[in-house]
């Protein structure tokens, strides 16, 4: 239920439908980034809640293009701001640094184009390519061990 | 664009894993928080515009009272000639 909605009930219904469809995948992205245990991913939930709130605040503009894209971008930006807090962990990306995790998740798991990833992270395309190769190698060697 | 990579596919399968459980009421709490955010932004914007309008009015009043574009009356009279 929404307390005195600034948008109106129809917006809330649209937003609720979007969250019902996308929250699972977005939370998985957040958990991969924070490398937390799946049972109690507190930081990932916090990141997702903040990203969804900012998406809702701009819903009128966001719904015209892609709410999923927008929320993922907010999520990644929030993780990039606080990434230094999340080193270590238990997930498959635990040995990687924050930027490597971002590049790997966006490029490999989400399938975002190299150029778009580079633009969103504010890095040159060559750097994204190098980071991705290094991250893939690190994750594979850790799996092999 | 690079062709589909065997190593990347392997890592992708690794990342696929089980989905974590989405907490109940996520949409409602996010919407409530988004509303607060929106309201705060709106208030800030309104305060900003109000300040701007007040400044414009104050400037107009000051300008119409002091008329800074007018040359102040000269204290020196022109030389008296040809009488």
Description:
The complex is a heterodimer of chains A (145) and B (83). Chain A has two domains: 91 residues; 53 residues, Orthogonal Bundle (Arc Repressor Mutant, subunit A), CATH 1.10.10. Chain A is globular and about 55 Å long. Chain A contains seven helices and no strands. Chain B has 83 residues and is mainly alpha-helical. Chain B contains two helices and no strands. Chains A and B meet through α1, α2, α5 and α7 of A and α1 and α2 of B.
Estimated radius of gyration of chain B: 35 Å
What is the subunit organization of this protein?
A: heterodimer
Overall number of structural domains of chain A? 2
Distance between the termini of chain B: 96 Å
User: How would you spell out the order of helices and strands of chain B?
Assistant: HH
Structural category of chain A is mainly alpha
The helix content of chain A is: over 70%
Structure summary, number of beta strands of chain A? 0
CA radius of gyration of chain A: 16 Å
Distance between the termini of chain A: 49 Å
Quote the average pLDDT of chain A: 89
How can the largest sheet of chain B be summarized?
none
Entry summary:
The complex is a heterodimer of chains A (145) and B (83). Chain A is an all-alpha fold and 145 residues long. Chain A is 70% helix and 0% strand.
Blueprint of the fold:
The complex is a heterodimer of chains A (145) and B (83).
Chain A: H1 9-34, H2 42-57, H3 59-62, H4 67-82, H5 98-109, H6 114-121, H7 125-144
Chain B: H1 6-16, H2 26-66
Q: Main traits of this protein?
A:
heterodimer; A: 145 residues; mainly alpha; Arc Repressor Mutant, subunit A; 2 domains; 7 helices; 0% strand; globular; B: 83 residues; 2 helices; 63% helix
């Amino acid at each position: 239920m929404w307390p005195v909605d600034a948008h109106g009930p129809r917006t809330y219904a649209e937003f609720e439908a979007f969250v019902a469809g996308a929250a699972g995948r977005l939370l998985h992205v957040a958990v991969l980034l924070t490398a937390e245990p799946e049972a109690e991913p507190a930081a990932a939930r916090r990141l997702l809640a903040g990203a969804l709130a900012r998406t809702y605040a701009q819903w009128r503009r966001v719904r015209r293009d892609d709410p999923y894209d927008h929320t993922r971008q907010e999520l990644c930006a929030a993780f990039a701001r606080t990434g230094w807090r999340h080193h270590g962990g238990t997930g498959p990306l635990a040995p990687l640094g924050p930027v490597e995790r971002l590049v790997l998740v966006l490029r490999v798991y989400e399938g975002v184009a190299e150029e778009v990833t580079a633009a969103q992270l504010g890095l040159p395309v060559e750097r994204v390519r190098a980071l991705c190769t290094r991250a893939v190698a690190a994750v594979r060697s850790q799996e092999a061990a | 664009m690079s062709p589909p990579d065997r190593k990347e596919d392997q890592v992708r399968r690794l990342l696929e894993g089980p989905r974590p459980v989405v907490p109940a009421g996520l949409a409602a709490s996010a919407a409530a928080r988004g509303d607060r955010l929106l309201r705060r932004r709106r208030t800030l914007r309104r305060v900003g515009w109000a300040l701007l309008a007040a400044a414009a009015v104050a400037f107009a009043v000051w300008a119409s009272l002091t008329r800074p574009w007018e040359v102040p009356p000269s204290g020196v009279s022109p030389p008296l000639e040809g009488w």
